[in-house]
Automatic annotation (TrEMBL):
It comes from the Bacteria. This is RNA polymerase, sigma 37 subunit, RpsB/SigB. GO terms for molecular function: DNA binding; sigma factor activity. It comes from Actinacidiphila alni. Residues 94-107 form the RNA polymerase sigma-70 domain. Keywords: DNA-binding, Sigma factor, Transcription, Transcription regulation. The keyword Isomerase does not apply. The keyword Nucleotidyltransferase does not apply. GO terms for biological process: DNA-templated transcription initiation.
């Protein structure tokens, strides 16, 4: 296959040892796939993908083509990782490693027949794996770095003392082993709870998947509390009504009488009762809103 002149600094016209195989003979020979420029990788990757789908998975030729694709496209991982450079240089190695997982997944799932560029297809996989890394390894709540480091020390100390004592260590034993105060150990143990959180949809302590979830056993606001507050506010307002108004409310809502029946009881028309109820309820509504 002819190699573009712009690619001569990264590609060799000398066929590598692996490319002597008949299945690879007409592929561009890449002596150092990791040094291939991004533009060159974009140009020749389709040729390698086309050949990859014709090879038997697990064969030496398949491994060579797949490995070359991975190394040639590592620049995509570096580009995506730079988006998260604010996390600090100490995390960059982990970020790149997570991005490599996404790159490998993209290579294994890419379908050349869809006529999409591999770059467009791969970047969401790479970024997705990096974000998954942060989701799985980051603290659920912010705690000082001192306590983050203390969590690691406590975990190691707990494992060591549990093996030595044949029982989980107490706070005092952990403090003595780490030469810390018990208050410091307690702070570290409390902070460790912020490292991982569980979904409310997960089951409780039972191993039975059909058991109640955390949400099923977690307390919630009692709607009766809101009703109690409303009644507590309404009580004084009802006492401010005159005797007739209180009687109308009692018959309408306490005895569930219709407006027509109330009118007959009081010797007035249904229309008058309707207007009286509207006025009484309006007075109560205004009083409750003013009280709030």
């Amino acid at each position: 296959m002819p190699i573009p002149a712009s690619s001569t600094h990264t590609l060799s016209t000398t066929v590598s040892t692996a490319a002597h195989a008949p299945a690879l003979r007409d592929l561009p020979a890449v002596l150092d796939p990791g040094a291939v420029a991004p533009g060159t990788a974009r140009d020749i990757s389709p040729v390698f993908f086309e050949r990859l789908r014709t090879l038997q998975e697990g064969s030496r030729a398949y491994s060579y083509v797949r490995g070359t694709l991975i190394e040639m496209n590592m620049s995509l991982v570096r580009v995506c990782a730079r988006r998260f450079s604010a996390r600090g240089p100490q995390e960059m190695d982990d970020i790149v490693q997570a991005g490599m997982v996404g790159l490998v997944k993209a290579i294994d799932r890419f379908d050349l027949s869809r006529e999409n560029e591999f770059t467009t297809f791969a970047i969401p996989y790479i970024v997705g794996e990096i974000k998954r890394h942060f989701r799985d390894t980051s603290w659920s709540v912010h705690v000082p770095r001192r306590l983050q480091e203390l969590r690691i020390q406590l975990a190691k100390a707990r494992d060591h003392l549990t093996a030595a004592l044949d029982t989980p260590p107490t706070v005092a034993e952990l403090a003595a082993y780490l030469n810390l105060s018990e208050d410091e150990v307690t702070d570290g143990l409390i902070a460790a709870n912020g490292y991982n959180t569980d979904s409310l949809d997960l089951g409780g302590d039972s191993d039975d998947d059909a058991g109640p979830s955390h949400a099923d056993t977690t307390g919630s606001c009692d709607p009766a509390l809101e009703l109690f507050e409303d009644l507590h506010t309404l009580g004084p307002l009802l006492r401010q009504l005159d005797v007739r108004e209180q009687r109308i409310l009692r018959m309408r809502f306490g005895q569930d009488m219709s407006q027509a029946d109330i009118g007959r009881e009081l010797g007035v028309t249904q229309m008058q009762i309707s207007r009286l109820l509207a006025r009484i309820l309006g007075k109560l509504r205004t009083g409750m809103l003013t009280d709030q």
